[in-house]
Write a structure and sequence with these properties.
heterodimer, A: six-stranded mixed sheet, 16 helices, globular, B: alpha/beta, 11% strand
Chain lengths: 382, 202
């Protein structure tokens, strides 16, 4: 049988794991697919290549398909979110110099941090983020909006260069995905002070995206791709597979990094400052557990709201989440399907059982640091 | 339209080239100069790009598609509340051919909102032509380098055979070529395998 070759764009990060594992462990081959993994130099390049048809599918930051749907940023196109690739997995940190001002603050306390940063500021806090349309920047804006006295300036720094920007003082703080936060700590130029999950307990981070037209023209290939990625995500969240995952991700053709830098994300054991003992962060990075790969329409609605969308825009953002395809293609191979495709975002402080196709499933806490909840059910019309 | 008209039209466009490689930056600037633009600036890196944008207030920013600093430019265009005018990536919906040509040549352009399309278009066409030329030169250079590398490997493989089997240079090469033909591989691949094996065996 000849395999269908798929050009698949990605940016080398720990959370590109589902695509790398789908390729390396043969989950794609089992579906008759050959994933041609094409490393992209930037998120803008990836977006252009996907939008203009040079890539069939790609790993994207979760706000990117929403931004493109809303016509924000460089290139607008009808891009669908097929499924989630990961939830959480980002960290916020500060330069070692700024960390001295925040010494008394416990790791992972967003309220105390805000107060500390507000007290510090002789000038706007410059924060490095990976891209304007990233969960990093949206969480940063959402979080710092709670401190009106704190002026924040976000600036995009390509993550592999974040450590350098921190070392040279171009930024005072950073919000990055792993392995780049641990890289900064390992070099002794900055400290991690909280994880993204301390601001939003369950934030969609990377998604699998494709052009809407492509999914219509290639239903079978879309199905195969989603199945291969789903199997890889399920494999990745099994405890016993983590050492092998770290080994494969580190290889030169993928992340090309040492195991020590990759491990924290995969194990959830973060070292906040050079030489300190690691701290365990619950639900640090999820690929499969707690419906991490389900493309919740309410998450897209939250993103659209942060990007300033009106109700039409929010509805458009929700409809680019292909929960229909997820149910149709992944249900038959054992994916547990939540009863609804929207939830009230931020409503769960604890793990919560909800009804699902197989009885009930356990969702992870998804609370916001300020306790707010977001109900988009009036926008819902599936 | 005569040449004088063109230059008088073109003078008032301010173009900023973001390129780390000085030779490449000069190459692009030269192409734009030849085509009649004179208000040109080049910067090598993006730390402080925001200040550069404010300082130069360019109408058009040209940057290599493969440059990771593009994301920083996008941010300035999309979110920053700089006093400078809004900058957006150039995508011509009315001329998708031009957009695809830019993608193929590996150049991206960011333009100030509200510029007339015909003025932008000629800058981008000039940039596309120069990027294509540089790409061509680069691939020829890479091919020449590769050929030299291959030559060295084959020479080493011949040397190994000459020493170990007491062959002449000509005989050594013939043996390599025969092995390659028998196995349906390229001479360089057989030579590489021999060199690797020999290195491992010491």
């Amino acid at each position: 049988m000849t395999r269908t070759v798929l050009n698949c764009g990605y940016v080398p990060l720990v959370d590109s794991a589902p695509l790398i594992i789908a390729h390396e462990l043969g989950f794609a081959a089992e579906e008759g697919l050959e994933l041609n993994l094409m490393r992209q130099p930037s998120w803008s390049a990836l977006r252009d290549m996907l939008g203009l048809g040079h890539l069939d599918a790609a790993q994207m930051l979760s706000p990117m398909p929403v931004a493109m749907t809303l016509g924000l940023g460089g290139l607008s196109a009808q891009i669908d979110t097929l499924m989630g690739l990961s939830a959480n997995g980002t960290v916020f940190g500060v330069t070692t110099r700024l960390a001295q001002h925040l010494e008394q603050i416990t790791f992972g306390d967003p309220h105390a941090l805000l107060a500390g940063l507000e007290a510090w500021g002789p000038r706007p806090l410059r924060v490095g983020v990976p891209f304007p349309f990233s969960m990093h920047r949206l969480l940063l804006s959402y979080w710092t909006a709670a401190a009106p006295g704190l002026a924040v300036e976000s600036v995009t720094v390509p993550p592999p260069r974040m450590a350098e920007a921190v070392a040279q003082g171009h930024v005072d703080a950073f919000w990055v995905g792993e392995p780049w936060g641990s890289d900064i700590v390992a070099r002794g130029v900055g400290d991690i002070v909280m994880a993204g999950s301390h601001v939003w307990g369950f934030a969609p981070e990377k998604v699998l995206a494709a052009r809407h037209d492509w999914t219509v023209d290639n239903p079978e290939t879309t199905q195969k791709l989603m199945r291969a990625v789903f199997q890889a995500s399920r494999w990745l969240d099994l405890e016993e597979n983590k050492p092998l995952a770290v080994e494969m991700l580190g290889r030169s053709e993928h992340l090309n990094l040492s195991h020590e830098v990759i491990e924290p994300a995969v194990t959830g054991m973060l070292t906040p400052t050079a030489g300190a003992a690691p701290i365990r962060v619950e639900h640090f990075l999820m690929f499969h557990h707690h419906a991490a790969s389900f493309p919740w329409r309410s998450q897209a609605a939250w993103i659209a709201k942060q990007l300033g969308a009106d109700s039409d825009g929010t509805a458009a953002a929700m409809s680019c989440c292909r929960t229909d395809l997820y149910r149709k293609y992944l249900g038959p191979i054992g994916a547990d399907l939540p009863g609804a495709s929207e939830k009230v975002e931020g409503a769960m402080n604890e793990k919560t059982a909800v009804s699902s196709s197989r009885g009930q499933m356990i969702l992870a806490p998804d609370a916001f640091f300020d306790g707010r909840t977001f109900d988009f059910s009036s926008n819902a019309a599936e | 339209m005569n040449a004088c008209d063109i230059s008088s039209v073109r003078k008032d466009l301010r173009i900023l080239v973001v390129e780390a490689d000085a030779a490449k930056a000069k190459n692009i600037i030269d192409a734009l100069l030849e085509a009649g633009w004179t208000d040109l600036h080049a910067i090598s890196q993006v730390s402080g790009l925001e200040q550069s944008i404010e300082e130069h207030a360019p109408d058009i920013v040209l940057i290599d598609m493969a440059n990771p600093d593009r994301d920083t430019l996008e941010h300035i265009g999309a979110v920053s509340n700089t006093k400078s005018r809004a900058v957006a990536m150039f995508v011509d919906q009315t001329d998708p051919h031009l957009t695809q040509a830019a993608l193929a040549a590996g150049v991206s352009a960011y333009v100030v909102d509200g510029l007339q399309m015909n003025r932008i278009k000629s800058v981008i066409e000039t940039a596309i032509a120069r990027f294509q030329m540089m790409r061509q030169m680069r691939s020829e250079l890479d091919a020449a380098k590769q050929a030299l590398e291959d030559r060295k490997t084959i020479d080493r493989a011949k040397g190994i055979l000459m020493r170990r089997r007491g062959l002449s240079e000509d005989e050594a090469y013939k043996l390599l070529r025969k092995a390659a033909m028998d196995q349906g591989r390229k001479v360089i691949d057989v030579a590489q395998a021999l060199v690797t094996a020999s290195d491992l065996l010491g």
